[in-house]
Amino acid sequence: MHATSIFSRLFPQQAAVTHRERLLSGLGGILAIFLTTLVAQNSLGGIVLPFMLASMGASTVLLLGAPHSPLSQPWAFAGGHLVSAAIGVGCALTIPNFYLAAGLSVGLSISAMYYLRCLHPPGGATALLAVIGDQKIHALGYHFIFTPVLVNVLILLAVALTINNLIPGRRYPASFALPGKKDMRAEDGRPPVKLGFNKDDLLSAMKEMGAYIDVSEEDLTRIYALATLHAHQRGLGSITLGDIMTREVVTIKPATEFQEAWALMRKHRIRGVPVMDDEDRLIGMVSIADFLKAANWRMCDSIAQRLKFFLKRKAAASVERIMTTPVIAAKEDAPLTEAFRIFAEKGINHLPVTNADGRLLGIVTRLDLLSALFYGDLAEAKAGT
Q1: Parallel, antiparallel, or unpaired for β 360-365 and 350-354?
Q2: Domain 242-384: which topology?
Q3: pTM score, two decimals?
Q4: pLDDT over 60 (residue 53)
Q5: Please, which residues bridge with residue 363 across strands?
Q6: How far apart are CA 253 and CA 376, in angstroms?
Q7: Domain ranges within the chain, ordered by starting residue
Q8: Are 160 and 32 in contact, with CB atoms under 8 Å apart?
Q9: Is the pLDDT assigned to residue 49 strictly greater than 90?
Q10: What digits encode the pLDDT tens for the residues 238-266?
Q11: Best CA proximity match to 130, nearest among 68, 84, 80, 189
Q12: Distance of alpha carbon 45 from alpha carbon 355, whole angstroms
């Protein structure tokens, strides 16, 4: 067996985490334990007990080192410790055999945490402490659940909620909701592309594996979606938005009247048009959807009638009233997959391409993407023959 193979078996690769995340997790752990011990000592200082449970150190690793894990969520943390403490006390009081009580306290805690959906590994240590602790802990009986366990849980949870939500890029508690396939927006914490499966498919696959997977459903779908984007980008090579964008773009001004803008769109057979200011900088977009939103929907039966009624009634009004702003735009050197991501997340059909000064260089539509993919596939097929 090669030395590299032995090394990889002894030291398997863990999750890819940035140096920034590692340092912030460590600093967060320092602050969390410092504040928790400080508050716990002031709260329980008069009681002859360990004012800080050692299992809280293990919980801090999860809450600050892996805040998005299902094992780290508030109910898993609080429920895991409290349920395990109750089971541990029960075993200590009812089972005379010390060794059997210790084993049952941990084993029953694991099963109970599974069924109650609050699996939290440090809870096993809390259950065990209720059995192997000294006489002072045993004398507390079920009061052990409240003091010191509940006090420790409340303090550390408050600290973890504060610290995690102050660190950029984190969200705590994490959202477990997996939306359907129709509406997946990244600003809501959802996958950046539409997926070929839904929540039921994912749950069925996880059940079929038959083991606990330490990743939330939401994060698992985002990992799949981002991996799909990277795979597409690798397959498409170095194609950028500048390579496929339409450079001759029809534009209008904010003062352009509704009827004139509509006539331009019909003449050029386009569904959207950029709005430029006096310095030729992009300030808005007007699409068919913007006209429809501003039309009186209740007075007409069809889309054509709505638009006709709207244009007649608002003949003197300008597009400044209905244009979409701020504009979602991209840079010329952005990879082709960036347009896929933006179209999927934002639900738009036109992506203006601008330079650093906000001046319009071109526009990319969904049709441009389809054309790029079609001709890319043809080129690959010819190269393979």
Answers
A1: antiparallel
A2: CBS-domain (3.10.580)
A3: 0.54
A4: yes
A5: 246, 352
A6: 36
A7: 3-166, 186-236, 242-384
A8: yes
A9: no
A10: 678 888 888 889 999 998 988 888 888 88
A11: 84
A12: 63
